[in-house]
């Protein structure tokens, strides 16, 4: 059962990777990253927590999963905000220096 | 089944790696790198499931934290210097 | 001192999770780390109010989150697998008057998981959240969805004054 869950999570991560490769726009690629790969990774880590028996391992996996859920969306949001602001600054600079 | 999951992770890593190398902007490359970190953490967990040894699991926690800090720093840079 | 009890408990739990074993040495060192953090970081001493448990509102919020999580992945799968990705992206401004900082943070985090939305920026005065949309067809529908999520959050986790201040959408 843990193996099946891990496979589903891995397929979700693969879906995110295909999205990151195929989407036309950098913002859309970040959509794929936050939604699919976070869930995919949480599923794989949950599968590991179900399969392993050593409590030391299970707590490490739970810690990694909760840290990822807390940090990955925030990190991608920092990136999207920075890209958005940089894009706006680039746009206004183009207005000042028409080619 | 875990072997199949590892193969799928490898394919995902190829995809993210392509974006890391080809992505026109710096943001694209960081997106690829974050994806590679996700694949890395998942692969560590899969390896622990396959061998039953959890020796590498703390590495997954450290990768998560360091990856987050690195991404935050690059985001600051993009905001100041343009991507 | 009692106000920071929640913070100390959280740090000790995280510390024990990191070390992986519930031993007296781990609990004591966790307490030491928590006390050092309390002394060193002034923001940690802010009192943390636990919201009252409202099972019905929490269940509604949980159900909405679960549905959104599944829907976002299904939508993404469809977009990724169709031969010609026909994505019309856009950026929407959503006015969210009267939201606290914590509510905006939680809302932005949840919007990263809901289908088609990705928060970009939050501006204050007036309070506006700028959101990037993957499939932009109806701007008002997007705004309504975000506001309904905000309402669910306030009903589940907000103080009674915040709930009373919610604009009643249903006539």
Description of the structure:
The complex is a heterotrimer of chains A (99), B (83) and C (171). Chain A is 90% helix and 0% strand. Chain A has three helices and no strands. Chain B is built from three helices and no strands. In chain B, helix 1 runs antiparallel to helix 2 and helix 2 packs antiparallel against helix 3. The model of chain B has no long low-confidence stretch (mean pLDDT 91). In chain C, 55% of the residues lie in helices and 11% in strands. The interface between A and B is large, with 52 and 53 residues.
DSSP summary, beta strand count of chain B: 0
Shape of chain B: flat
Residue windows where pLDDT falls under 50 for at least 5 positions of chain C: none
Q: Largest interface: which pair? A: A-B, 52 and 53 residues
Helix content of chain B: over 70%
Structural class of chain C: mainly alpha
Largest sheet of chain C: 3 strands, antiparallel
Distance between the termini of chain B: 40 Å
DSSP summary: helix tally of chain B: 3
Rg of chain B, nearest Å: 15 Å
- List how many beta strands of chain C DSSP finds: 3
Shape of chain C: globular
Gyration radius of chain C, rounded: 20 Å
Largest sheet of chain B: none
Summarize the structure in short.
The complex is a heterotrimer of chains A (99), B (83) and C (171). By secondary structure, chain B is mainly α.
What layout of secondary structure does this protein have?
The complex is a heterotrimer of chains A (99), B (83) and C (171).
Chain A: H1 2-22, H2 26-51, H3 55-96
Chain B: H1 2-22, H2 26-51, H3 57-81
Helix pairs in contact in B: 1-2, 2-3
Chain C: H1 5-19, H2 24-40, H3 55-81, E1 90-95, H4 101-111, E2 117-123, E3 128-133, H5 139-157, H6 160-164
Antiparallel strand pairs in C: 1-3, 2-3
Helix pairs in contact in C: 1-2, 3-5, 4-5
What would the keywords be for this entry?
heterotrimer; A: 99 residues; mainly alpha; 90% helix; B: 83 residues; 87% helix; 0% strand
């Amino acid at each position: 059962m843990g193996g099946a869950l891990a496979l589903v999570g891995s397929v979700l991560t693969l879906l995110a990777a295909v999205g990151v490769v195929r989407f036309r726009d950098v913002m859309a690629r970040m959509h794929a990253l936050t939604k699919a790969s976070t869930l995919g990774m949480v599923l794989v880590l949950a599968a590991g927590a179900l399969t392993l028996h050593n409590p030391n391992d299970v707590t490490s996996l739970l810690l990694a999963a909760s840290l990822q859920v807390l940090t990955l969306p925030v990190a991608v949001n920092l990136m999207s905000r920075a890209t958005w602001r940089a894009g706006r600054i680039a746009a206004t600079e183009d207005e000042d220096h028409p080619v | 089944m875990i072997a199949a999951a590892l193969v799928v992770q490898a394919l995902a890593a190829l995809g993210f790696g392509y974006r890391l190398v080809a992505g026109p902007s710096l943001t694209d490359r960081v997106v690829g790198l974050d994806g590679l970190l996700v694949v890395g953490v998942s692969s560590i967990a899969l390896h622990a499931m396959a061998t039953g040894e959890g020796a590498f699991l703390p590495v997954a926690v450290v990768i998560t934290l360091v990856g987050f800090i690195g991404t935050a720093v690059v985001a600051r840079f993009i905001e100041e210097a343009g991507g | 001192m009692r106000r920071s009890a929640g913070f100390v408990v959280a740090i000790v739990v995280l510390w024990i999770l990191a070390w992986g074993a519930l031993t007296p040495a781990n609990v004591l060192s966790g307490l030491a780390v928590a006390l050092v953090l309390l002394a060193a970081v002034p923001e940690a001493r802010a009192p943390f109010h636990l919201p009252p448990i409202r099972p019905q509102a929490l269940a509604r919020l949980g159900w909405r989150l679960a549905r959104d999580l599944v829907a976002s992945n299904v939508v993404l799968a469809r977009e990724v697998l169709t031969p010609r990705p026909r994505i019309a992206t856009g950026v929407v401004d959503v006015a969210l008057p009267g939201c606290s900082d914590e509510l905006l943070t939680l809302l932005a985090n949840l919007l990263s998981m809901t289908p088609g939305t990705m928060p970009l920026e939050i501006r204050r005065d007036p309070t506006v959240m700028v959101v990037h949309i993957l499939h932009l067809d109806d701007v008002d529908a997007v705004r309504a969805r975000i506001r309904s999520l905000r309402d669910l959050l306030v009903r589940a986790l907000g103080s009674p004054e915040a709930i009373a201040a919610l604009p009643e959408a249903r006539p």
